[in-house]
Amino acid sequence: MSWESLTKGVSGPLAALDSFNSAPKIQRRAASREELVRVLQAAPLDRQLLYETAFVSGLRRNELAQLTPAHVDLENEALRLDPNWTKNRKPGLQPVPRSLEKAQILTVVREQMAAA
């Protein structure tokens, strides 16, 4: 349905309004594999795992910030997402890709839990 058909025959303040341009101002695209590799290579060591987790999981910034070792589900090799900070307010389970396993996210968490 067009704006013109909605405002046809309408009097008052809406009648004077023009249709608006709904085209996005910025064209977005996914980063290429090469761009992601360059970001990881340039990142400080303490940030590389965080960035790789973001790239492969699609978690939002706040979701990443809320993660703790307690959110790592070792049995299912996944990250448990708390409904208090997910966008849809539902609990989630985000599998940990093998690439992150190679980055030793599960090993790091296992060591932290054993030391506690």
3D architecture notes:
The chain is mainly alpha-helical and 116 residues long. The protein has one domain (31-115): Intergrase catalytic core (hpI Integrase, Chain A, Orthogonal Bundle). Helix content is 43%, strand content 9%. It is built from 6 helices and 3 strands. The longest helix is centred in the middle third of the chain and has 13 residues, at 45-57. The model has no long low-confidence stretch (mean pLDDT 78).
Summarize the structure in short:
By secondary structure, the protein is mainly alpha-helical. It has one domain (31-115): Orthogonal Bundle (hpI Integrase, Chain A).
Profile the largest sheet: 3 strands, antiparallel
Task: Determine the CATH topology.
Answer: hpI Integrase, Chain A
Kindly, what is the distance between the CA atoms of the first and last residues, rounded to a whole number of angstroms? 60 Å
Which structural category fits the helices and strands?
mainly alpha
How many helical stretches? 6
> What would you call the shape?
elongated
β-strand percent reads 5-15%
Which helices and strands, and how do they pair?
Layout: H1 3-7, H2 33-42, H3 45-57, H4 61-66, E1 72-73, E2 78-81, E3 92-95, H5 98-102, H6 105-115
Antiparallel strand pairs: 1-2, 2-3
Helix pairs in contact: 2-3
What tags apply to this protein structure?
9% strand; three-stranded antiparallel β-sheet; mainly alpha
